Amino acid sequence: MAADDFDVPRSSKRRLPNIAMSPETFGRGAEGFARFMGTPAFLVGMTVFCAVWLIWNTLLPESWQFDPRSLNFTLLTLILSLQASYAAPLILLAENRSTDRDRVEFEHDRQRAERNLADTEYLAREVAALRIAMREVATRDFIRSELKDLLKELEEDAKAPEDNPIRSDRPDDEQVG
């Protein structure tokens, strides 16, 4: 049975812990880190860190130094390179997410603008149709002038029988009106 154990790879027996992280969670973390790196607090903190590092490894006795000047601060250089190698992709990831959000927002704004344009064009057509319809509608002044003209005609007709009485030999019920 010992020989059989050599036939089975050890990697199948041991598994790394499953770190399940959604892309959204990772992206939010990257954005938070990128946002923090752009703050004055981060810049001041990094400046203080580097200054303390340089002073410690330059001015203190050699037995206390962990990254001596004689080796050109190799450890500090490696730490800053590591920080930069992680910072650049995280910043790009955050910028890509921001670009995607901007693209979605731009698309929503474009759709909203199209709806507003369609609504505005519809309202303009409705106003034009109302103006055309209003030309055909009798206005108050038009109706007054027509009524005045009718009143004048009625008054003239009322005065006309007094001036020119029409005589007929027929009785009143046979007269044609």
The largest pleated sheet is described as:
none
| Strand percent estimate | under 5%
Distance between the termini: 134 Å
Overall pLDDT level = 82
* Helix and strand element order: HHHHH
Number of strands: 0
Radius of gyration: 48 Å
Q: What key attributes describe this structure?
A:
about 180 residues, mainly alpha, 5 helices
Strand-helix topology:
Elements: H1 2-7, H2 23-37, H3 40-59, H4 74-136, H5 140-163
Helix pairs in contact: 2-4
How would you sum up this structure, described in words?
- The N and C termini lie far apart (134 Å).
- It is built from five helices and no strands.
- It is 72% helix and 0% strand.
- It has helices at 2-7, 23-37, 40-59, 74-136, 140-163.
- The chain is mainly α.
- The protein has a domain at 25-120.
- Residues 155-177 are annotated as: Disordered.
